[in-house]
Design goal:
Blueprint: H1 2-29, E1 32-38, H2 43-56, E2 60-66, H3 69-77, E3 83-85, H4 92-97, H5 138-145
Length: 151
C-alpha cells in the first residue's frame, strides 16, 4: 500500500512539474505590445527601430499612432499609451498636471531650413547664375520665423 501511495505522490509531483513547465512556456511566448502615439516627424525612424527590435525580440510588438505632438501628449496624460512623442518638450503646467511623472528622452533631432524661390520662371538649371548674390539677413530670417515678414 505504501508503494501505491508513493507512486501516486510521485505522479502528482510530475503532473505539477509538467503543468508548471507548460505554464512557463506559455507565458514566455505571450507577446507584449508597447503602445505609443504622437509626433509625425519621428514616425519613419520609429517604425524602422520597432521593426528591427521585433525581429530580434518577437515577443515584443509595438503600436505607434502618428497623430501629432498634441495627440501624443493627450493620450499619454490620459494614460491611453505607454509613451508619447512630441516635437518640443511638454510645458511645465502639462508636466505638473500629468497623473504620473513624465521623463523626456530625446530620440530624434530635426531641423527647419529656410527655402526661398528665385523668380526665374521655367529656367533650366544650367541657365541659372552659378553664384547668385541672393543674401538673406539674419533679421529677415528671424522675421520669417516670427511670421512678421510679408514679402
Amino acid at each position: 500500500m505504501s508503494g501505491r501511495i508513493a507512486r501516486r505522490h510521485l505522479l502528482r509531483y510530475v503532473a505539477i512539474a509538467v503543468l508548471a513547465a507548460v505554464a512557463t512556456a506559455a507565458a514566455q511566448t505571450r507577446a507584449t505590445t508597447i503602445t505609443g502615439a504622437g509626433a509625425t516627424f519621428p514616425y519613419p525612424i520609429y517604425s524602422r527601430w520597432f521593426d528591427e527590435y521585433t525581429k530580434r525580440t518577437p515577443q515584443v510588438q509595438f503600436s505607434y499612432q502618428s497623430i501629432g505632438s498634441g495627440g501624443g501628449i493627450r493620450q499619454l496624460t490620459d494614460e491611453f499609451v505607454f509613451f508619447g512623442a512630441t516635437d518640443a518638450p511638454m510645458l511645465e503646467e502639462e508636466l505638473l498636471a500629468a497623473p504620473a511623472r513624465i521623463v523626456h528622452i530625446p530620440t530624434v533631432v530635426g531641423a527647419v531650413v529656410p527655402v526661398y524661390n528665385v523668380p526665374v520662371a521655367f529656367a533650366v538649371v544650367d541657365e541659372l547664375p552659378r553664384n547668385p548674390a541672393l543674401k538673406v539677413s539674419l533679421p529677415a530670417v528671424a522675421a520669417l520665423y516670427e511670421a512678421r515678414a510679408n514679402r
